[in-house]
Every structure is written in structure tokens, then in C-alpha cells.
Amino acid sequence: MGFRIVLLGPPGSGKGTQAEKLNDDLGLIRLSTGDMLREAVRDQTELGKMAKQYMDKGALVPDDVVIGLIEEKLVSIREGFVLDGFPRTVQQADALGKLVSINRVVNLDVDDDELVSRLTKRRSCPNCNVVFHLLYKPPMKDGVCDKCGAALYQRSDDAEDTVRERLNVYRKNTFPLIEYYSKQGILVNIEGKGSINEIYEAIEASL
Ligand code: AMP
């Protein structure tokens, strides 16, 4: 089995972008609970309808639901993977620890003003889940995904009010995971400011 990595960090810290690069360069499978949930919302499944009520507010979807989603994926994976957006609570981290052993937890550290700017200028691909930024990583053609050609959209939870709420939720529920994994001796802190490539190189060097 290859590397098993968790990307930790507030919304907008670059987890999705860096997970995508780890997938391109190292072949690690990207597992994003946010993407899985958005897909369920788009498909209007029962799970999607339930999750949407939490996501629209910037709140967390209940632990048992996301743990179930991840469990389902992990049973069939034999290769290395990178978790993007999971775990987000101590309960999720405990559940993950029972399923698989993680080699490295990379914490991306970015200040709040920068996070708000990044999230409100973010544009996402609904088809292949690649993320762009209007200033830092604009698509080659306005409003169109470089990778698959689908029309880009702004996530409804990337509106400023919801972004502030997501940052509060992060501080309350997810921030404690830094100490949790630090105690296990597998955490590395990476300054999440700088170019996408600089941050990627720092992550790669830490593995
Ligand atoms: P993300 O794409 O990771 O920013 O996630 C978008 C939204 O999906 C979050 O604001 C939550 O509502 C929900 N979500 C994603 N991952 C989790 C998780 N591990 N636990 C609870 N809710 C989650």
C-alpha cells in the first residue's frame, strides 16, 4: 500500500488544489468528502437532500454520514490516497484511525483574510472537481475548465457570509485535530502562502 496522507487546514487553504497535484504527480487517489457530498446533492439522492441542509449553512454534515461515505471508499482502495476535507472532527479522526493507519498529516496554515479572498474568488468544475482562482489560478479560457471543458461555477457556500461561518466551524471542530495528530507524531505544518508549486514542493519534501 502506498502513502496515506491527510490534508488538514481551513477551507480555502489549498487542500483541493494540492490533493489534485498529489494525484497528478504521485498517483495518490484523492478522496474528498466535499466532492462526494456535492455529487449526492447534484444527483438529488436522499443523502444529498439531507446533506444540502447543512452544507448551505456552512455547517458540518453529521459524523456518522461522512464516516459511512469514507468507509465505503476505503474498503476497496489498495493504492495510496490523500484525504481532502476528512477528518473534520475528533470523532471522525478516531473512526479513521480504526479503519487505516495514516503516514502523514499535512496541516496547511493560512491566515483568515487570505482565506476569505481565496474562497470568494474561487471557481470550481462541477464535472472533474478541479478548482481555479480568478487571480492566482485563472482558467485558460474564461469560465471554462482547462481539464474537461465544462462550465465553471461558484459554489453557493463560497459566498462571503457562509465562508465566515465555515471558518468558525473550522476553528471549533477541526482545529483541535492539529494537536490530536501532533501528539501522534505524524503532523507536519506547512506555510500555505506562496505559489501553488512552492507549497507543493514543501509538502512533497515533508512526506
Ligand atoms: P469542502 O468541499 O471540503 O469545503 O466541504 C464542503 C461542505 O461539505 C462542508 O462545509 C460541510 O458542510 C460538508 N463536509 C465536507 N466534508 C465533511 C466532513 N468531513 N465532515 C462534515 N461535513 C463535511
The overall pLDDT, averaged over residues, is 95
Number of discrete helical segments: 9
- Strand content range: 5-15%
Distance between the termini: 15 Å
- Work out the helicity level: 40-55%
Q: Largest beta sheet, briefly?
A: 5 strands, parallel
Written account of the structure:
The protein has 9 helices and 7 strands, in the order E-H-E-H-H-H-E-H-E-H-E-E-H-H-E-H. By secondary structure, it is α/β, with parallel strands linked by helices. The strands form 2 sheets. A 5-stranded parallel beta sheet has the order 2-3-1-4-7, sandwiched between helices. Strands 5-6 form a two-stranded antiparallel ribbon. A hairpin with a 6-residue loop joins strand 5 and strand 6. Helix 1 packs across helix 9 and helix 6 packs across helix 7. The longest helix has 15 residues. It is globular and about 45 Å long. The model has no long low-confidence stretch (mean pLDDT 95). It binds adenosine monophosphate. The site of adenosine monophosphate has 17 residues, from helix 2 and helix 3.
Can you describe this structure in just a few lines?
The chain has about 210 residues and is α/β, with parallel strands linked by helices. The protein is about 45% helix and about 15% strand. It is built from nine helices and seven strands, in the order E-H-E-H-H-H-E-H-E-H-E-E-H-H-E-H.
Task: Furnish the topology, listing elements before pairings.
Layout: E1 4-8, H1 15-26, E2 29-32, H2 33-42, H3 46-55, H4 63-74, E3 81-84, H5 90-99, E4 104-109, H6 112-120, E5 122-124, E6 131-133, H7 160-174, H8 176-183, E7 187-191, H9 196-206
Parallel strand pairs: 1-3, 1-4, 2-3, 4-7
Antiparallel strand pairs: 5-6
Helix pairs in contact: 1-9, 2-3, 4-5, 6-7
The structure holds adenosine monophosphate (AMP).
Adenosine monophosphate binds next to helix 2 and helix 3.
